[in-house]
Design goal:
Blueprint lengths: L10 E3 L4 E3 L21 H15 L13 H27 L9 H10 L20 H14 L3 H19 L4 H9 L2
Antiparallel strand pairs: 1-2
């Protein structure tokens, strides 16, 4: 005997004469990791976070510093007067010293020479190449001048040569023979 089971109908267990319950539908799990039984809610997690912040805060104890006694005040005044005396003595010593020698003006002459625009080109002279060999001291001095004046190496060398030539030429102001000897050598 075959019975048809309709949806919602219950089957009878013949041996016990009770209605049999069909097997429950398997529980389908949602996506993601299942919750732990002791998981905290968002409010509980926030409360725990705030409690950790309060526990980690640095407690500062302020102690009141007593004002200095009259004796300590007088000691500070004496120390201040002693230091003023030393300062006055040092100033008198500086006034008695001879003035420091003034630096040579060559550095400012060189700065003017490197700061001025280059000499205008001669139309017929053309450019010539020059190969230089120098020791480390002169090389690093050239590098410092290049960096300080923001010029190229050839520009620094050209301007220093122009400056030296102009200075020497001006020194022959009244000596025409020496000037002509200087000019004719090239």
């Amino acid at each position: 005997m075959v019975q048809s089971i309709q949806s919602g109908a219950t089957m009878r267990d013949v041996t016990t004469k009770r209605a049999a319950k069909p097997d429950p539908e398997p529980v389908t799990r949602g996506p993601g990791r299942p919750r732990k039984p002791d998981a905290m809610t968002g409010a509980q997690r926030q409360a725990a976070y705030r409690a950790r912040l309060r526990a980690a805060s640095i407690n500062v104890t302020v102690t009141k510093i007593a004002p200095p006694t009259a004796e300590a005040h007088h000691a500070l005044v004496r120390e201040c007067e002693r230091l003023r005396g030393e300062l006055a003595q040092a100033r008198r010593g500086l006034a008695d010293m001879p003035p420091a020698p003034q630096p040579a003006h060559a550095a400012s002459d060189v700065a003017q020479a490197l700061g001025r625009p280059p000499r205008p080109d001669d139309g017929d002279s053309g450019e010539r190449q020059l190969r230089l060999t120098m020791n480390g001291t002169q090389f690093f001095a050239l590098e410092r001048l290049v960096a300080h004046f923001s010029l190229s190496r050839p520009a620094v060398i050209e301007r220093l040569i122009d400056w030296a030539d102009d200075t020497l030429t001006k020194s022959f102001y009244d000596d025409e023979v020496a000037f002509n000897r200087y000019i004719d050598r090239a």
